[in-house]
Specification:
The strands form 2 sheets. This protein has a 6-stranded mixed β-sheet with strand order 6-7-8-3-9-10, with helices on both faces. The protein has helices spanning about 55-65, 85-95, 110-120, 125-140, 155-170, 185-200, 215-220, 235-240, 245-255; strands spanning about 15-30, 30-40, 45-50, 70-75, 80, 95-100, 175-180, 205-210, 220-225, 230-235. The mean pLDDT is about 95. It is globular. It is α/β, with parallel strands linked by helices and about 260 residues long. Bound molecules: adenosine-5'-diphosphate and magnesium ion. Pfam families: ABC_tran. This is Amino acid ABC transporter ATP-binding protein.
């Protein structure tokens, strides 16, 4: 196996395309969880993914940074194809930040330490500089005053904002969100969505699995509906919500809107 990052040559489009998924399939054992996924995400594009529970949303976005392995087809992120090549996987993970439903902060580290750990140990950023960058992002998510606290001392909404700040400290070019507000009490959802809206306005390429349709209408360039491991329908938000084409999409929307 080569130890160099293997770049896929796609002259002309490489600057504009952040993620390209071509004919991708995934199985969990015998279970065919993702079926012929085709998706091109332009740089700076904001995509919302929705669909019923179990439709494969998490699996699809987890494949994009190889938290799950696909078995067929191609996933290309910033010109780098996700294969078994560890250098490729590392290079892609450097580009892609991810936030989960359950914030996954380190409970024994302070907020500031959560934000500086990876920059210091993975990126070899000097501690003082890492702390300065972390404070900048904690400011952006409006919780600089919580820097010395431990995650357990914060509300869910605050913890999720720390998780977002922590991802941003690694300077990702692409952010993946997997239902970042679905574990939160209603009064905390808005504060996390506001941070995500602000991030979207910076031009970050984003894929967000969420059922927050207000967020989708406000920031999404495209809404994707998944069911049964397939992308059933996609459209710009206005068309998607007002004029859903497939019966399954219509039925899903009637349940959540
Ligand atoms: P969603 O995020 O849309 O709710 P998931 O991607 O989590 O859906 O799951 C899609 C399907 O794959 C579900 O039927 C789920 O039970 C199954 N699944 C998820 N993770 C695993 C796993 N590690 N092993 C086997 N089946 C799984
Ligand atoms: Mg999920």
């Amino acid at each position: 196996m080569s130890d160099a990052v293997q770049r896929v040559s796609t002259p002309g489009v490489s600057d504009e395309v952040a993620i390209q998924i071509i004919g991708m399939h995934k199985w969990y054992g015998q279970f065919h969880v993702l079926k012929d996924i085709n998706l091109t995400v332009r740089r700076g594009e904001r995509i919302v993914v929705c669909g019923p529970s179990g439709s494969g949303k998490s699996t699809m976005i987890r494949c994009i940074n190889r938290l799950e392995e696909h078995q067929q087809g191609q996933i290309i992120v910033d010109d780098i194809e996700l294969t078994g090549n560890l250098k490729n996987i590392d290079a892609i993970r450097r580009e892609v930040g991810m936030c989960f439903q359950h914030f996954n902060l380190f409970p024994h580290l302070t907020v500031l330490e959560n934000c500086t750990l990876a920059p210091i140990w993975v990126r070899k950023v000097p501690k003082a500089e890492a702390e300065e960058i972390a404070m900048e992002f904690l400011n952006k998510v409006r919780i600089p005053e919580q820097a010395a606290k431990y995650p357990g001392q914060l509300s869910g909404g605050q913890q999720q904002r720390v998780a977002i700040a922590r991802s941003l400290c690694m300077s990702p070019r692409i952010m993946l969100f997997d239902e970042p507000t679905s574990a939160l009490d209603p009064e905390m959802i808005a504060e996390v969505l506001e941070v995500m809206v602000n991030l979207a306005e910076t031009g970050m390429t984003m894929i967000c699995v969420t059922h927050e349709m207000g967020f989708a209408r406000k920031v999404a360039d495209r809404v994707i509906f998944m069911d049964g491991g397939e992308i059933i329908e996609q459209n710009e938000p206005e068309e998607f919500f007002n004029n859903p084409q497939s019966e399954r999409t219509q039925q899903f929307l009637s349940q959540i809107l």
